[in-house]
Amino acid sequence: MLEKVLERIKETGVFQYGLIKPSAISYRQEIRDICKGNLCRKYGTTWACPPAVGTIDECRERCMHYNTMLVFTGKFMMEDSFDYEGMVQSMADFKKLARDLESAVKPCLKDYLILSNEGCDICKTCTYPFASCRFPEQLHHSVEGYGILVSELAKQAGINYYNGENSVTYFGALLF
Ligand code: SF4
Q1: What is the predicted pLDDT for the residue at 134?
Q2: Residue 38's pLDDT band (boundaries 50, 70, 90)?
Q3: What is the structure's pLDDT at 39?
């Protein structure tokens, strides 16, 4: 099964990937506290981010249900460090990459979980917190929202956290 998954992952255009055990990851409350600071302006606005994703313990439990975490990245080039439009576009492109990856591996896996970058762009306006998610089967929770420090995750998975000047790297994970 792993071979098939890896074969399909390679076809999706991910930049790098690496495998780790969900039990080897630290799920940190302090990362959640950074989420609360709301620098990304997503906190409390979507079912994909805290507090909607549950407590740190609930997130850890959800991950620990699986044996393997395949960490994957997308690398995107900006015109310069002030390229706001490029940044917004790359966030959307990474979400699409995570959705493409899901379509690619779905036929091989009975039970899996995908984490992606912050927020959710499926609907123009999210239903949170007044009604249930419109598309729960397409919803990807955010990696950071689970209290995971991506620089540490990159190190553990043996992939790059930083990919050079004027580039931005987003992280996602497939648990199965
Ligand atoms: S699918 Fe729609 S309702 Fe669900 S989290 Fe995303 S934007 Fe919100």
Answers
A1: 98
A2: confident
A3: 86
Ligand 1 close to Cβ of residue 128 (< 6 A)? yes
Does any ligand 1 atom lie closer than 6 A to the CB of residue 134? yes
Which residue lies with its CA nearest to atom 5 of ligand 1? 47
Nearest CA to ligand 1 atom 2: 123
Domain ranges of the chain: 2-161
Task: Indicate whether residue 126 lines ligand 1 (CB < 6 A).
Answer: yes
Task: DSSP for the chain, please give it.
Answer: -HHHHHHHHHTTT-SEEEEE-GGGS---HHHHHHHHHTTTS-TTTSTTSTTTT--HHHHHHHHHTSS-EEEEEEEEE-SSTT-HHHHHHHHHHHHHHHHHHHHHHGGG-SS-EEEESSS--SSSS--TTTS--S-TTT--EETGGGT--HHHHHHHHT--S---TTEEEEEEEEE-
Query: Is the pLDDT confidence value at 76 over 90?
Result: yes
pLDDT at site 87? 93
Residue ID of nearest Cα to ligand 1 atom 3: 133
